[in-house]
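Hey, I'm writing a tutorial for new members on how sequence and structure tokens pair up, and I'd like a real worked example in the thread rather than a made-up one. If someone can provide the structure for the chain below, I'll link this post from the tutorial.
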Amino acid sequence: MTRQRKAKSNKKARRDSLYGYAFVAPLCTGLILFLLFPLVFAFIVSFTDYTMYSGSNFFDFNFRFVGFAQYAKAFSNENFLRSMLNAVINCLGVPVGILLSVILTNLLISNKRGSLVFRTIYYLPTVCGSVIITFIWQWLFNLVPQWLGLQGELNMLDKNHFMLSMIIMGVWSGIGTSVLLLYSSMKGVDAALYESAQIDGANAFNRLYHITLPQISPVMFYILFTGILGSFQDFARFQVMGSNAPSLYKLMPVWEIYRQVTDAGDLALASAMGIILGVIIIAISALQFAVSKLWVKD
């Protein structure tokens, strides 16, 4: 009987394992086909001279390995280096967005009347298509000089104001999600902390600085972390706002990688640029986690 029970138990365990593998198989297949394989493929190609328009298939192995030549070429590419600088400038909008979100969320918490309506209004840009929003902002930026009576003197989309315009648009687009996350976090702060501080004579600013911000710091870190990563991978709205004209002040890293593939067919150089961008993003992520220990409350 003991052997029969053990055999039956093993059979059931194998069947349960098969069910488990069957359920995770689609996800694993997708990860292998659309994440792992492209990553390995790009890494290999980045060390070759392969181009898409060479007249041969990659698997014909009609290419030669050139070592780090493509990486050297990427670091000497003026467009790619400028796109990295633009990405860093684009990141400046992230802390500004967090600051505005904290202020707005604190106002919503303090004044409950109509907070649901305002939260809905703030969140609306998040559910709208980025291309449509970019076209709307492009129209607005063209109207601003007319409203200010500076038509012909001020161009919000020229090289002197383009990044500022994109930062303004980025802050507006991302503030809805930030407010929603911060609102939920602030609502979870223990009310007894505010009551104790108020009894001790702490004003509204002191309560915000010494109680609210430390308590919501993990959510702020999440918004900062994802915001900076998103800023380095920004692509669609820059392409649309820039009218697909890749001037230096409009370029972003992903856009430049895209151009290397579509315009020049230089898949090897594009792969090297993609690997460099990935390494930079990983380094920035590691730095953020290291620095977070200084200000994020556990």
